[in-house]
Amino acid sequence: MKSIRDVYKIGKGPSSSHTMGPERAARLFLSKYPDAETYRVVLYGSLSKTGRGHGTDRVLYEVLGRERTEVVFSEETPHSLPHPNTLDFFACREGKPYATMRVASIGGGDIRIEGQDAPQEQDEVYPENSFAEIAQFCRWRYISLSEYVELNEGPGIWDFLAEVWQTMKQAVADGLAAEGTLPGGLNVERKAKRLYAQSKENERPQVRELRIVCAYAFAVSEQNADNGTIVTAPTCGSAGVLPAVLLYMQRTHNIPDAQVLRALAVAGLFGALVKRNGSISGAECGCQAEIGTACSMAAAALCALMGLSIEETEYAAEIAMEHHLGLTCDPICGLVQIPCIERNAVAAKRAMDAFNLSGLLCGSRNISFDMVVRTMKETGLHISAKYRETSEGGLAKLYDRRAAN
């Protein structure tokens, strides 16, 4: 299994698969063919259908140069596509292509290049590839999940996670300070600042917790929607869940950063497991793959933060994923705004519920985390393409129909 560094990527929003991935691919293609007279990029599948809303064309123009680049939103979906997020690059001279590269943007900012050799063994950081294997190893060695991460990643992982945590906190701070309307034409107003400040006299503790956690999640998600700097956890569209719960717990319980970094390590471990054995791509498996994974990561992080056992941690992550199964990805106008921003807040609270429930019912569980990840992948592949980040069904379709009337 690959490093948790593949789960956490610092970059600009609004989409890890529609902006981060294509930007990375474009830079690679530019480095291979810098002397091309012109470039042509053809977008297929979800990239074509929601690329404008996600800013795919914008990042391609920024990297390759608007004056010499043509971006084509193809209405065709060839059966040979390796992934719903696929794009073809062409380097041209005198109007004719002389080099091409097909790339799949597989989620979380990662890309897969067609024809390239499979990742070599040295790219794998963890010998274990399932949670069952990891839990068995940890019990054998009498180590915690965060110690298991350090054992495989090396001590340098803590400096990396310190930067991740600082970026997450900054995204919350920037989001709470910002006001106005998000770009894209939906006229969605930023709500994080108002939500955070909306305390009332004699506010009940449960209401305060809901308000603050949701304000943090809104803050990061609104920053993402406004092309701000965030950390994929595991994607841009689900980036608000994990920092919201960790920052709330840190400030409520005066938890030091060093302890939070260990929680981030455990969260990253669960995210890496989903990337390997399931999917974190909304275009491939719906929003269950993005927000469901983020919720699992956050629930596991809370368990690590508060000293719960490995069994309780697995149960919390499983609960969080199980109750997102079948969740569709139907962004209105292809923007990462409705329902994405609000969904981050709801998932953050659900992660806290999963954490609390796991401590009460751990001994009674029947479903493993590995099983629910496999179920999520199978479910996602059977969801209609209309509900996998194409904006052709669900809220996206009904909103357009209503607006047209």
Automatic annotation (TrEMBL):
Pathway given in the UniProt record: Carbohydrate biosynthesis; gluconeogenesis
Residues in Serine dehydratase beta chain domain copies: 3-61
Ranges for domain Serine dehydratase-like alpha subunit: 157-396
Enzyme class: lyase
Essential cofactor(s): [4Fe-4S] cluster
EC number(s) from the headed UniProt entry: 4.3.1.17
Region ranges (Disordered): 1-21
Gene Ontology MF annotations: L-serine ammonia-lyase activity
Keywords of the record: 4Fe-4S, Gluconeogenesis, Iron, Iron-sulfur, Lyase, Metal-binding
Catalytic reaction list: L-serine = pyruvate + NH4(+)
InterPro entries, A to Z: ASB_dom_sf, Fe-S_L-Ser, Ser_deHydtase-like_asu, Ser_deHydtase_bsu
One matching Pfam family: SDH_alpha
Family membership noted in the UniProt record: Belongs to the iron-sulfur dependent L-serine dehydratase family.
Listed name of the protein: L-serine ammonia-lyase
